[in-house]
Structure formats: C-alpha cells, structure tokens
Task: inverse folding
C-alpha cells in the first residue's frame, strides 16, 4: 500500500439519468489522504470520496515530476 495526499481538488463529471445533466463532483479532496496500490499493469489505483476506484498514475507518472499525478498528489 502507498499513502498519497491530495494537494489540489480533483473533480469528475457525473451523468444524472434520465436528464443527462452533467454535474461536477468532488473525487479527491485537498489535504485528504488516500491509500493506493499498484495493479499488475503498474497503474496506481485508489478510491475516491465515494469509494469508486480510479487510476491516478502509471509507473512513469509516479517518477516524473511534471505529471498530472504530481499536480494533484504527493507520495507520503
């Protein structure tokens, strides 16, 4: 298990059926900690605020300092 801390809120979109109304929802909250693990393909996977799994990085992004992962999370 790998502990990560969110350093910038991450939002996703949801679709409300039957209205197909797009609405932003908070996936990862700034300053919250999340437990992550690497899957067989090397992706770093964690669960959002609602318990849904998400890939937040691949093995190259974890090592790269200018990736989406490092914009939103830090390794603890």
Result:
């Amino acid at each position: 298990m790998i502990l990560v801390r969110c350093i910038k809120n991450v939002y996703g979109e949801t679709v409300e059926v039957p209205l197909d109304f797009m609405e932003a929802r908070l996936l990862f909250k700034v300053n919250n900690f999340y437990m992550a693990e690497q899957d067989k393909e090397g992706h770093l996977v964690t669960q959002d605020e609602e318990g849904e799994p998400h890939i937040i990085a691949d093995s190259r992004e974890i090592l790269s300092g200018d990736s989406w992962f490092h914009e939103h999370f830090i390794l603890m």
Remarks:
- The chain has one domain: 2-75.
- The longest strand covers residues 21-28.
- The CA atoms of residues 9 and 29 lie 5 Å apart.
